[in-house]
Design brief:
- By secondary structure, this protein is of the alpha+beta class.
- It is about 30% helix and about 25% strand.
- It has a 5-stranded mixed sheet. Strands 17-24-21-22-19 form a 5-stranded mixed sheet. A 3-stranded mixed sheet has the order 5-3-9.
- A hairpin with a 3-residue loop joins strand 11 and strand 12 (about 140).
- Helix 10 (about 330-335) packs across helix 13 (about 370-385).
- The chain is globular, with a radius of gyration of 24 Å.
């Protein structure tokens, strides 16, 4: 094996921040634009891809151009574990620039790297864990230029060895990798769709909202017709309870008794390890079908599920029974989407928790009408079945 070296990214090239905007302005030159989702869903950027067509100034075209060996990163995300997705530019892309939602790394000497190797290098778990630890934020997580510059990578100096590694990695158990990538891609697309729909950037029919339709809020950009609501604004919030276990007659009946371990396998909570009787259920509190259950105590805070039939929960779970025409499915996806943030709010105590009062006051977006809520919930439910 030829010599391997260890270097910081700042020793190997130059990081450049935000690129050009997505607007079309009179007097500017037409150009193709590589966007966030182009990088998020691909590890290779090629001329065969279809890019958005916009306009840019001469300065933007000169500063944000794309050449072989450039690596584009996604420097922000809703969650820290989904940040710094990378895609390598495999050939020069004249007439193409990158957007302001991306960050570009340009090697000082691109000929010293195999482009396929770079794609694997920057998308491996070790690199992702580094960026995960560096990500900062509350409602949206970001990385700064220093975070990228100080990344240390290990690689063989010999380009032929790089290429051999890339070929080996690319060919290992191809069938399994193909299936895994297909599943991962579907999950990423669903997560991306969830982010776009739950922030109103996309309407339920899939059409985008224009920047003039959006407003700045405590939760970031939301449609002007939406509001920032609290969980309790959607319905009645309650906390479950475990009936006295010394009384055997409280257990073993028709009411599912939901605990955190019963949640997470699917959206609908269909099976539980234990059940309550008609004697024990009133002591725990009976929830109707379509109640939204959220784990708020313990290591699995943020798990969410929907009841199928009248059910009960233990004290680790807060539940919402939607009032009026509010959509339980929308509330399920909106809460699930912010699970990571709920975990952060609960703290790092031995037993992290969000009590009923804190949970009731938690803010999430509220669409303009219950009909829009239902349409968003239905669209996301459809996507989850693909």
């Amino acid at each position: 094996m030829d010599k391997w070296v260890s270097k910081k990214l700042k020793e190997l090239g130059v990081m450049r921040g935000a690129g050009a905007d997505k607007l079309t302005q009179p007097g500017e030159k037409p150009i193709r634009l590589v966007n966030y989702m182009d990088v998020y869903t691909n590890h290779r950027i090629t001329s065969a891809m279809i890019f958005q067509e916009v306009t840019a100034t001469d300065r933007e075209i000169a500063q944000c151009d794309l050449k072989r060996g450039d690596v584009l990163f996604t420097p922000s995300s809703e969650t820290p574990d989904d940040i710094a997705n990378a895609a390598v530019v495999v050939k020069d892309l004249p007439g193409t620039i990158y957007s302001y939602h991306l960050t570009r790394f340009r090697p000082h000497n691109p000929d010293s790297f195999d482009t396929e190797f770079l794609g694997y290098l920057f998308n491996n778990p070790v690199v992702h864990r580094y960026f995960w630890r560096k990500a900062c934020g509350l409602t949206r997580f970001t990385l700064n230029r220093a975070d990228f510059n100080n990344l240390t990578i290990n690689y063989p100096k010999n380009k032929a060895e790089q290429a051999a590694i890339a070929r080996t990695v690319g060919s290992v158990d191809w069938a399994i990798v193909a299936v895994q990538e297909s599943i991962a891609r579907a999950e990423r697309l669903q997560k991306g769709l969830m982010q776009q729909l739950l922030t109103g950037r996309l309407k339920p029919d899939g059409s985008p909202r224009s920047p003039t339709e959006m407003q700045d809020t405590k939760l970031g950009l939301l449609p002007k017709t939406w509001s920032v609501a609290r969980i309790k604004d959607f319905g009645e919030v309650s906390t479950g309870k475990t009936p006295p276990t010394a009384i055997e007659a409280n257990f073993g009946g028709e009411f599912p008794f939901i605990t955190p371990g019963d949640m997470g396998a699917s959206k609908w909570i269909r099976q539980t390890e234990r059940s309550l009787s008609t004697l024990g259920a009133p002591l725990a509190g009976v929830l109707p079908a379509n109640a939204v259950c959220v784990v708020c105590i313990g290591a699995t805070i943020g798990k969410v599920g929907l009841t199928v039939i009248p059910s009960c929960t233990n004290q680790q779970i807060n539940s919402i029974v939607c009032a009026g025409s509010h959509s339980p499915e929308y509330l399920y996806y909106a809460t699930r989407h912010r699970a990571r943030h709920l975990q952060m709010l609960a703290g790092v105590n031995a037993t992290p928790q969000l009590n009923k009062t804190e949970f009731s006051k938690y803010r999430i977006p509220m669409p303009a009408t219950p009909e829009e809520e239902a349409a968003i919930g239905a669209r996301l439910a459809e996507a989850s079945r693909v």
